[in-house]
Amino acid sequence: MYKIKLKKVFTSVFLIAFASFTNAKTLTIMVTDTRYQHVTGFGAACCDGAMCPYGTDTQPVRLLYGPKSKIGLNIMRMEISPNFEGDIIVPEWGNYDTPYDWQGSVPSAKYVKQQGGIVFGTPWSPPGNYKTNGSASGGKTDEVSTRQEGRLREDCYDKFFPWINTFLTYMKSKGVLVDAVSIQNEPDWWVNYSGCLYTPEQQLNLVKNYAHMLDRKKFPNVRLISAEPLGFDPKYSNMLLNDATAREQIDIIAGHLYGHPPLGNMKSSAVLAAKYNKEVWMTEHSSTDHINHLPTWHEQLLFAEELNECMLSGCTGYIYWYMRAHWAFVGTGEPVELDGIKYTIAGNVKNKLLPRAYVMSHFSKHVTGSTRLGVKSTAGESTEAPIEYSAYTKGDSLIVMAIDTTSTAYDLKIKLPCKVQSGTHLLSTGNETANLCQNNPITIDEPTQELIVSMPARSLNTYIFMIEPEETAIRGITPISDAQSSKVNEKGVYDLSGRKIGLQRRKGLYIENGKKIYINR
Known about the structure:
Elements: E1 2-9, E2 12-18, E3 25-38, E4 41-46, H1 59-64, E5 75-80, H2 106-114, E6 118-123, H3 157-173, E7 180-182, H4 200-210, E8 223-225, H5 234-241, H6 244-249, E9 252-256, H7 265-275, E10 279-284, H8 297-312, E11 317-322, E12 336-338, E13 341-343, H9 355-364, E14 371-377, E15 380-381, E16 387-394, E17 397-404, E18 410-428, H10 433-436, E19 438-455, E20 459-467, E21 479-480, H11 482-488, E22 493-494, E23 508-512, E24 515-519
Parallel strand pairs: 1-19, 3-18, 4-5, 4-11, 5-6, 6-7, 7-8, 9-10, 10-11, 21-24
Antiparallel strand pairs: 1-2, 3-14, 12-13, 14-15, 14-16, 16-17, 17-20, 18-19, 18-20, 22-23, 23-24
């Protein structure tokens, strides 16, 4: 436990912090009241491979999703397989235990929705008979002479969104209201499995001239996500956002991080998205996969830095790749084969939470539903570095994240934009469960705006401070009448857990554009 003692001298307040490292060097950061993006949440994919039987095993989502879970994910990605209602397609790149169809993800999707989560679908390919190569395959084969790029045929552009509507209708009939649909998984990556290529110009044509066919009357809350390029290439999203007609149709811009870290392409893409009040989702990435051991603690910290840098880049939603894999969140219990050799991976127990899940929980349990605040350090703005920071406000809490990948422990002096009266230090220092779930109270004798806490070497830290009541923005809230509340949703209203709220809302506190509002019903 940290005991922060305060001593008053005239009108100044001096802090003496008795933390774990009394002789440690001190680093100073200043949290500002500058507000950036509202964070919708964090999630993972319920797709093929390590999730077999295909999506029907709900144990991973039961471990990972919902406010009562240890991890607190709230976004699930599923594939819109290239078929129609009632069709069953076995994937061209493998033989799985259950058919490759829309039904496979229903059990997991239904559970996530029951927990108040968000479910969205991504096509890897539209139906093969809509494409130039007549196949769901991307068309890249080992035999050069048989290669043919799989693209959506121009005479089938008007069939794309009606096909998406059939998916939404099917899922609704199974009790799942899908929250969002994407244009395409990795439109810039030519593959030999299910895939479809689009240039930025082709995506613009599809969205500008045909996205009005997405049935928003039947599905009024569904949101449209841009195609998700491999390295978050800004050309795909910028071309959409720079066109007024296409911009009206797109709600979320998205992409992946392969080959391009967050503070590059994604940060560049987020600039125009922020201008037009569009969300920015990182919808797929995995780090250190296909290895023959669990990720090391250093690799876990690098994953934490990736999450942090996504937030610093303006990301509003982060969705990891598989949720069940030895390099992901839930163990498979299966060996891996590399170069013909099978490896049994220590710690990879089937349906056991893995260290990476607990690293994710620092963000998913506490940053979801928050608004990011500015942070400055003695070294300037927090960027890609051995020590990184970010800060958030959520309800009556002020949250500071700090990641130290070095072998040196520090005392962290934090200067805040408002007074806080108590706090909690959530600490992870290693891959063992006991080291991943350390929880220490921070006791503050008197409300203060400046304090010192410990930051151990090679650690992930979440400091959650309770704002002094009179320092919150609640006193400045203007109540909204029942009649007015029906209009608020047009701008986007969220509850304090980060869930988007529809028109049927009860009396209480909500977040609108990063600010608290009070609905009086």
